[in-house]
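Bit of a strange request maybe. I'm writing a small parser for structure token strings and I need a real example to test against, not something I typed by hand. Could someone generate the tokens for this chain?
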Amino acid sequence: MTGYGQFCAIARSLEVLGERWTLLIVRELLMGERRFNDIRRGIPRISRTMLSARLKSLEKAGVIARTGTAGTEYALTEAGEHLAPVLRELGGWATAWDRRGLRPEHLDPDVLAWDIRRRVVPENLPADPTLVELRFRRRAATAHPSPYYLLARRPEVQLCTEEGGFEVALQVDADLGALTRYWLGEHTWNHLLRAGSVHLTGPSRLRRAFPTWFSGYLLSTADADH
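Reply from user aminoacidic:
Good idea to test on real output. This should exercise your parser:
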């Protein structure tokens, strides 16, 4: 990207971090992703070519470094780790001052499912493998797309595209917009249930436990009432 030609530290920082996708890549690394494909799953609209280019730029700037066998993973350097409060402030600003609010173009089931799978409360997860089928709908009349599968087993949840030989223990059918707002902390889980925005099919113990498995969006605006 062309520089701003200014001594201002803000201008200089934007020369490193101001290009499209760059800070979202930093976000994914701060959230614990390390591999190229996992980073991309958190930013599904970026092309592989663009992601590769942005990673190279961040590495050249000293924000990230290659790690792992044969340099197949990425990690933030000390300089990159110091961007954590910057991203928190940006997120807080958008929550408080972005007048657009949450718009239809902001709703992405791939991004939501990926974030749900990594924001877990390990001690609340089932000890035995438990498969949850998750379906999103945009409106009540919209046909259900292909489901996502969350395979929960303490201490983690894996996001899958098929059952993988496990029997579905719990089915979750949710309005995409409503579940996104819940994830952001704008609605409580009880609100979703009362409004019919989410419907769970399965044993009562799993229906009650499911929302307690997850800690919610990192920059949630409120502590959701599970």
